[in-house]
Write a structure and sequence with these properties.
It is a single chain. By secondary structure, the chain is α/β, with parallel strands linked by helices. Helices cover 47% and strands 11% of the residues. The strands form three sheets. A six-stranded parallel sheet has the order 7-6-8-9-10-11, sandwiched between helices. Strands 14-13-12-15-16-17 form a six-stranded parallel sheet, with helices on both faces.
Amino acid sequence: MDSKNRQKLYAVVESLGAMELAFQKCCNMQDLVIATTSPYVIEICARRDIPVYRMDGDITQRQADSVGYACIDATIAIAQSLDSARGSGEPPLGWALVFGLQRAMSSYMYKAYLLGRMIEKAQLENADIKVFGSTEDEPVQGFRVIADRFDTLFSVIGNKVGLKSIPFSAPRPTGAMETGDFMRPTIWSRLTTLLNAPLTSIAFRLGRRLGHDRQISLNPFSRRGPVIALNQSNELMEEVFLALMSRGKTVRFLNMRLKGREASTEIDPVVVSVVMSEMNGAWAEKNLPRDEAFTLAARHLGERVSRAIGYGKSISTEIEKQLLAFVRNDVGRRPFCLLNAMNGPYERLLRHFCAKHQIGSLVVEHGVAPGLSPLHEAFCSMDTELGLRGMLLYTPAQQELFRRLSNDEVAASCVVAGVPRIVRSIRMRWLQRFLQRTALGIEGRVTVWCTGLYPNNFQFLPHYWRDTHYHEIRKQVVYGALASAKGSAILKLYPTFRYTDPDPLAGLLELPKNCSIQQFTDFRNMRAAADVLIVDGPGSILSWAWSSGVPLIYLETGMYTVSDAFASALQSGAFFIDCRKEGWLDQLRELLMLEQSALEKIYKDKAGKRRETEDFFIFGPTSGRFRKINSFVEQGLGPSGTSFARDQISETGRRVA
C-alpha cells in the first residue's frame, strides 16, 4: 500500500500484552501509533522505536485539577440530592458513599476527558482509533463504586462511545493482601516490626483476638464510666486503647458481621438521572467539555451508583441493629465509639447511627497528610460541607484545617493526639540499623528515595500525580541525581501495582550501577538503614521518614503538592527542592554529592526550625494528649460537639431521662 494513502491508526492500550495484540491485528495495514498512559508501555515503545501518543502528555496540572474539583462539586451535590429525596428518616446513603463516589468519578471522568481529547485529535487528523482491552469493568461489589485497579477504563468508555474494540484481558498480578499491597514479610522485617511495636499495639492485637465481643478492662470488677467500642484498627487507635484502659475505661471491639450480599442488579433511573444532572452542572461550571465520552461515562457511573445504593439500603438496617445490640448489652453505662478513618461507606454509616442515637464518638485519623496539602484540603471540604465533627487528629495543622474550612466549633470538636509512638521513634535504632543493612546488603552511605506511584485507575484528583509526567520526573531523579550520589542509592517503590505491568524502574530500565530497588518491603522496616532520605509526597511516608532523624530532602513535583505554609516550613527545617523551578536537578545532585558530614552539619543547623515544623505539621503534642482524650470521652462529646447527659440508653437506643 502506498504510504501516502495509509490511514493513521491510534491503538489505545494499557498493558504490554494489549500492545502486542495491537501489532498482531494491525500489522502492515496502517501507520500505527500506540496511545497510552502506561509508563511501562511507553518505555517499551521507546526501545522498539514505536510511535507513541501519551494520552496525558499535553494535560497541565491545572486541567487535571479542574476535573478533580468538578468531581468534588458533583459528588457533594449528588449526595445531598439523593439523601434529600430519601427523606430525613432514612439513612444518608449518599453521604456514606461520598468518598468512594469521588474517587470513582475522578478515575472514570479523567479517563473520559483524556479519551475525548484523543478522539477530537484523531478526527482532525482523519485518523482511526481502536481500543484493546476488556470492555467490561469489575461489577459493583457491595457498597462501593470505585474501579478495580486493573480495569481497562479506556476500553470500557471507548466501547460505549462506539470505538472499535478488540477484547483483551492482561494477566493480573496475584498475591495482594486485603489492603491491596503486595508485601512480602521476611524474618528480618518481622523482627524489626516487633522491635518497633509498643506494648499498647501488642495488647490491642491480643485483646481483639481474644476479646471478641466481650468487655475488656484492667479492673474487671469496675462497672463505672463509659464502655468504649473500637472498630477496625490503626496505629493511633492502638495507642489510645491502652491509655484509656489505664484510666479505668472498659473497652469492647465492635465487630460488624454483615452477611454477604450481592449489589443490586436493578438500575434506578432516578439515581442515574441525579448523577448525570449534577455532573453536567459541575462540568459546565468548570468549562470542561461535555462530549459523548463524558455523557456515556457519566451514565455508566450513575448505573454503578444505583447498584451500590441498592446494596446500601439492604445493609444499613443491619448496621444499625448491630450498633444498638452493643448499646443494649451495656444498659446503665454510656457507650462511646472510636471509629477508624471515615473514607469507607460502612464506617460512615456507623458514624451516622452513632449521631442518630446520641452515642458519643470520635473518628481516628491515620496519617499526617491533612493540613499539609491542597489535595487533602479539597477532600476535607466534602466532610466539612456535609457536617462531619468529632475527630481524633495527629497534628495542630489538621485542626487548623478544620477551623479554616468550617468554623471554630467544628475544630473544637476535634482532639489533637499527636502521631503514635511507633511512628515517632525508632526503638533500639542501632540494632534495627544493623539488621536492616545486613539484610539489604548495604555498606557505607545509602540514600533511600521513597517514590510515589502511578495513579492509573486510582485518581485522587485534584492535586495528584499524573502518570507520564511523574514518570519523567522519576527518570530525571534516577539518572540525573541518584547516579551521582555519594555511596549507594535505593529506590523504595510503593509495595503494590496500579498497572498489570510492573514499574518500569523495577527491571525494565537499566539503573545506574550505584542504584538498586526495594519494593515489597514496608518502608518502616528499612528506614533505620538510611543515611539520607528523599520523599516526594506529604502522605504517611513523610512522618515515618521524618522520625529517622537523618537528612531529609523533600521533592515538590508540582503534582501531589504541599501547601505554601508547609513548603515554607520544609525550606526552614529540611531540604526543599521545587521541581517546577529551573535548576532543581542540579540542586538535588549537589546535595547528594556532599560528604555525609557536610550534609549532616547543614541539616543540624536547621534543628531549631525543624522542631517547630515537627510540633505543628508532623508530630503534634508529646504530652497531655491522653488526658485530653480521656476528658473528651468522660464528657461524652458526640458528633454535634455538644455534651450528652450521663443517662441511660433505652432499648431503642434513644436517651431517656
